[in-house]
Amino acid sequence: MCVNLLSSALRSLSLLGSRTGPSQIVNRSVGPAVDGRGSLTVWRDFITSASQQQNRTQWKQREKYTIRPIGMKKTGGRDYTGKVITHGIGGGHKQRYRMIDFQRLRYEPGKEDQPIVEKVVEVRYDPCRSADIALVAGGSRKRWIIATENMESGDVIKTSGTIGRIAVLANEGDSHPLGALPVGTLVNNLELYPGKGAQYIRAAGTCGVLLRKVNGTAIVQLPSKHQIQVLETCVVTVGRVSNVDHNKRIIGKAGRNRWLGIRPSSGLWKRKGGWAGRKIRPLPPMKSFINLPSVAAKS
Amino acid sequence: MFNATVQSIRIWTPKITQTCKSKDCLNALNISAHGYRCLSTSSCLHGKVVPRKKPRVVHEIAGLEPITYADRMHYVPGLAKPTFPEWDRGWKEPRHYKSPKLEDMPLHKDKPCYIFNQMTNVLEGVRQALWLSKSILIKGLPAQILNLALDPANQIENQDDRVQNAIKNSRLWDTTEHRPPRERFCPSLVHNLLHLCDSLHVTHPELAKRILADKYSLAATWRRGEIVFQVRGQNGLLLNSMSPVPVAAGDELIQSTADQALETFYPISPTIDLQCTHVYQEKNDTGFRADYPFCHAHTLFLMEMGNAPKLYPEQLRAKMLMFAFGNALARAQALYGKEPRILEKPIVVQSVATNGRLFQFVVFQLNTTDLQSDSGVKNLAWVEEDQPLYEFAKVRPLIKKKVVQVPAGLSGYEPNTFKKFLALYLHGTA
Predict the structure, then answer these.
(1) pLDDT at A44
(2) CA–CA gap between residue A199 and residue B184 (Å, rounded)
(3) Nearest Cβ partner for A43 among B12, B16, B37
(4) Cβ A34–B276 below 8 Å, yes or no?
(5) What pLDDT, on the 0 to 100 scale, is given for residue A294?
(6) Which residue from A226, B29, B75, B265 puts its CA 20 to 30 A from B9's CA?
(7) Range of A105's domain?
(8) Where is this protein primarily located (chain B) (predicted)?
């Protein structure tokens, strides 16, 4: 039956004659050409390898920034092969992704020399993270940022990239480079490399502490008590992240975990190995994110 | 840039069905409407449009000429892909038209223009509209309109009953379902009320010299400082009249506005939420021809039905203000030309906006077209906010725990709101 189908299908096709010239080489890749008799001309090359892209990541390929929430596709812990990579993820309430601008020090095109002053329009819940997010408007643009602890609508927040000789009196919600802040301030939304965008200390209620400033670099203690060394031009926000009582919430029932997209763990009893139990050990050495020229390059 | 090739493939696909006479052939061939190759036969990918991957970027190195297989007339592995010059058809084919880039368009300008159109939802609301139109806000309607509202000679007979009937007609009697959609009852209510107001043409013969116009396009351009602003597009229902609306403020009030300062809202710029474009045309058009007999814009009726975009009352009032200002400015520039000047006869445009229950009234008086500077004589805007016409109009009563909270039918009718509506309608007839 399949052979009949294939033969009847191919009967309607006609192979390309010798009428193709150089002018049609470019057009061939676009699609099939219809010649005068109205019959189909077949593609020459067949690709036999499947696409390696995950076909469910189209929703996050948007380059232009928008404050409008974007519909998300859940992966269920699976990757492009379709296998479960992370267990315990799946289901849950539908969520829409709001594009958060983690690079606080982002100037509007054309206004690079003016200070960035913004007003908080609203602070709201974000289903994609534990912290609350704030819609801030400044100049002619609006963007979402991670809200700090006492941020309310109507507040005016400042972002600056300059490091003065004297430390700045930091207000909560403002954003300055590490070199401009006094030692001992609570900071959040820490950048590892200047201009890359905040990658650390973004969860609800977290804050890091600025420990020392050492010739051009600053040492920050993360919420896990690890210490890292970054360049002092990295921009951070002052204060604790919003939604401070997040870790005190009680889930209450299994259903609430399912609403959050957390599937139950495997019920099979497994003997715990060396990884389990409380460990008391010294802190790992301080990690440094400063790309100093190597000794070999200097010599 | 719309490429019409996909459309031609869609037209071509049924031709195969005729020759094959079997839909299975289509599936066997794995031809899809979009024309991209997809050899998978799984059902989840059937009919799916996977967007085309971007082609490999070929960098041109100056001085090096790539050796291509163009001369050989066939693909040769190892040689570069030839690039041919862009083929120009020579004549305009509407199905295969690629629009030029923004920079190449004839109306492209270096200076951007900020346009207020019917899809705009300004963040700062009325404050932003006041800055853009260089106006001062006065709460409440002008005294002469309030006098018109209270004058018993201007009432329709059985006014309250007839208005309540109009509300019930649009809210209750128009549907067999639980409630009619807002897109239906809002325009229906406005048209019923207008019809009711028009029944006074027996006693006020000047009402015959008015006409309603819908779906007209407005264009008005002005500068504030160095920035170019425009109001463009369709606004709503416009009531035109043959005679202009009388001036609502005396000369002393106009001159006193020169001392008041415009409210700014740093750090937000007044251009926020406006459409910024470099391709524009500085047009001033009232929407009607020059010889149109009903040339004076009287009242603009805006209906907020909660779709594209949903406007809160503050933003709705801003939209009313901007369009009233746009109408007035277009009229001023049609009468007096483009030169910025202080008008001896200020132009007044009224506006009524509703979402079916709450009414917002705006009376805008254009005193000056000199909008470049922030100082000097300013325009005036009287705004009456959030006037409910009724509280509830329910088809079925709201019952909570066997107690009727809100009865069925119309409840909480406010007669004053319709009096103001009627006063705005009759303003101009002496």
Answers:
(1) 46
(2) 50
(3) B37
(4) no
(5) 64
(6) B75
(7) 100-245+284-291
(8) mitochondrion
| Distance in Å, alpha carbon of A83 to nearest chain B alpha carbon | 17
Tell me: do A121 and A154 sit in the same domain: yes
The C-alpha atoms of residue A33 and residue B70 are separated, in whole angstroms, by: 21
Same domain, A69 and A170: no
A50 has a chain B CB within 8 A of its CB: yes
- Block means of pLDDT (10 residues each) for chain A, 299 residues, are 57 47 41 42 44 69 93 90 92 95 92 91 96 94 95 94 92 94 95 93 95 94 95 95 95 96 93 92 93 64
- The answer to whether A55 contacts B73, with C-beta atoms less than 8 Å apart, is no
Nearest CA distance, A125 vs chain B (angstrom): 20
ipTM of the complex: 0.83
| Residues recorded for chain B | 430
Distance from the B267 Cα atom to the nearest Cα atom in chain A, whole angstroms: 5
Same domain for A148 and A218, yes or no, is yes
Res B43 pLDDT > 50: yes
- The count of structural domains within chain A is 2
Predicted local distance difference test score (pLDDT) of residue B303: 93
Question: Cβ contact (<8 Å) for A119 and B84?
Answer: no
- Whole-number percent of chain B with pLDDT over 70: 89
Positive or negative, the CA dihedral A60, A61, A67, A70 is: negative
A215 and A142 together in one domain: yes
CB contacts of A6 in chain B (<8 Å) are 28
Is the bond into B309 cis (omega within 30 degrees of 0)? yes
By Cβ distance, the residue of B25, B39, B73 closest to A5 is B25
Q: Do A140 and B269 touch (CB under 8 A)?
A: yes
Considering the domain architecture, whether residues A78 and A58 belong to the same structural domain is answered as yes
Check if A139 contacts B (Cβ < 8 Å): yes
Question: Who contacts A177 (Cβ-Cβ below 8 Å, separation ≥6)?
Answer: A160, A161, A162, A163, A194, A232, A233, A234, A235, A236
Which of A8-17, A234-243, B259-268, B282-291 is predicted least confidently? A8-17
Kindly state the greatest CA–CA separation across chain B.
94
Residue of B nearest to A20 (CA): B73
Contact B45, B38 (CB under 8 A): yes
The mean pLDDT value for B257-279 works out to 92
Confidence (pLDDT) at A295: 66
Supply the CATH number for residue A156's domain: 2.30.30.30
Size of interface A-B (CB pairs under 8 A): 76
Do A127 and A225 have their domain in common?
Answer: yes
| A66 lies in some domain | yes
CB–CB of A12 and B50 under 8 A? no
User: What is the b/e burial string over B252-269, where b = at least 16 CB atoms within 10 angstroms of the residue's CB?
Assistant: eebeebeeeeeeebebbb
Do both A93 and A108 map to the same domain?
A: no
> Which chain B residues touch A118 with a CB distance below 8 Å?
267
Find where tokens 């010599």 sit: A299
Domain boundary among A56, A79, A99: A99
Residue B221 has pLDDT above 90, yes or no: yes
- pLDDT, tens only, B100-120: 999 999 999 999 999 999 999
Of B51, B53, B272, the CB nearest to A137: B272
Q: Which residues of A75-105 are buried (b: 16+ CB within 10 A; e: fewer)?
A: bbebeeeeeeeeeebbebeeeebbbbbbebb
Confidence of residue B333 (pLDDT cuts 50, 70, 90): very high
| B25 and A CB contact within 8 Å | yes
Fill in the DSSP letter of residue B141.
-
